[in-house]
Amino acid sequence: MTILKNPDTVSQAGEPARPENSLWKRRGSSWLVKGNLLIVFVVLVVVASILSPDFLTIRNVSNLLQQSSLTGIIAIGMTLVILTSGIDLSVGSTAALSGMVVAIALDGAVPIPLAILLAMGTGIVVGLGMGYVVAWIRLPAFIVTLAGLTAIRGAAFLTTDGKPVGQNLPEAFTVIGGGYIGFFPITGLIFIAVALVAAAVLRFTTFGEYIYAVGSNEEAARLSGVPVKWVQMAVFGISGLTAAIAGILLTSRLTIAQPTAFTGAELDGIAAVVLGGASLFGGRGGISGTFIAVLLLSVLKNLFNLMGIGSFFQMVATGIILLLALILNKFIDSRARTIS
Question: Following DSSP, what letter does each residue of 178-198 receive, concatenated?
């Protein structure tokens, strides 16, 4: 009788392989999958430092954090939606509408805290509305939010008939988006705080477990007692909230609100989430990957600017680098699955 031997337990010399070797191999592969984007980011920072002596100056790093913060905040909310296998194409329009709402309220002498709450509430209501349609009426999130992209942008134009608003914003409000604490921009600190809160929710709360469960297998999650529809609606509400925060910060930084703001922001957010390792089919990914991906894209853009490279070439180069990074991520992920 022929006895089949498990290749994981037999070495090439015919000697039984030690179990700890296989364990370390799997662990190493897992760390490589989780850390490959961080490795790419560190390599890019080293290359940027060599090519441009101004890259690692405090002023440049501070500017880099400020420039990445608004896209980053939007991408954090987008991450939660994508983890449930959804997508939100309306975040740019929601951010523009919320920025208009806070500026109109402040021009109307509404107190700053109340104006900010009104803008944040606008984002939450818009997000929950689209989440309701996706979860209860069972329409594809892509279609619903694509319609929302147009309708909400139109609403932003209707608020002032397409004109900018907020020329006389209170100075205390403009500090939120343009101020610094030491060398750190306040918008950058808010980005980090939002990322930490979202990561804690995913890691330590039942709601975070529900998000992964819904994204992994919606039907299995429903049979296990997970309130699938409420979870789906809630993540859209959170996405609307983070978009509103970005809109408020941009209005504060520019000291004016424009209905054309954040055009294309939804694509930047989706690119950061996917580059960060999240699956568009849901159930896989995390906040740390999105956070690093946002910084990586900002470093790329910053490096191009420091080297005086034109914007058209930047678009081509960024697209190619994004594609190569995704191919590398896919290759490493496939290798890891083979080993495990």
Answer: H-EETTEEHHHHHHHHHHHHH
Residues 6+ apart with CB under 8 A from 307: 51, 52
C-alpha–C-alpha distance, residues 265 and 242, integer Å: 12
According to DSSP, the residues that pair with 10 across neighbouring strands are: 16
Neighbours of 336 (CB within 10 A): 18
Q: What are the DSSP calls for 104-137, one per residue?
A: HHHHTT--HHHHHHHHHHHHHHHHHHHHHHHHHS
User: Do 98 and 244 form a contact (C-beta atoms < 8 A)?
Assistant: yes
Question: Which range is least confidently modeled, 14-18, 36-40, 193-197?
Answer: 14-18
Sign of CA dihedral 91, 124, 118, 246: negative
CA dist 92 and 260 (Å) reads 9
Report how far residue 76's alpha carbon sits from residue 290's, in angstroms, rounded to the nearest whole number: 7
**Across 95-99, 117-121, 196-200, 316-320, least confident range:** 316-320
Cα separation of 53 and 50, whole Å?
7
